Amino acid sequence: MDPLGLALENFDGMGMYRTSENGSAIDASAKINAVEVKDAVGLGQALHDDPAATSCLVNRLVEYGTRRAPRSQDKEWVTALREQFASLGYRVPEILRTMLTSDAFYQLAATTDEPLKGASK
User: Fold this and answer.
1) Residue in 42, 39, 14 with CA at minimum distance from that of residue 29
2) pTM (two decimals)
3) I need a labelling partner for 1 at 20 to 30 A (CA). Which of 21, 25, 51, 77 fits?
4) How many other C-beta atoms are found inside a 10 Å radius of the C-beta of residue 58?
5) Quick one: how far is CA 48 from the chain centroid?
């Protein structure tokens, strides 16, 4: 399991908190981008403190919404979305509304162009 998953290991498939599984104690500690985390709270703090987390989230939202990785011709739009995300107080519903109501969201880009650098992170 990846480090993010390990930090959430105390939660079962239904979201119930647990400290053991099949009689064995659960170790939810993980190392994420060289930061040691002990549990879900530590994971939240590590993500909060990582300046790349918000850019990554915007990239993932664009990728999910457009069904493709952001491309170089999307650079201005993605940069504007990142800036708007910050100005909106990092509220996910607000950035989703902004993204989904923008003209750029409905324009199909040529599929021959290269993905933006760092779009897969």
Assistant:
1) 39
2) 0.69
3) 51
4) 22
5) 11
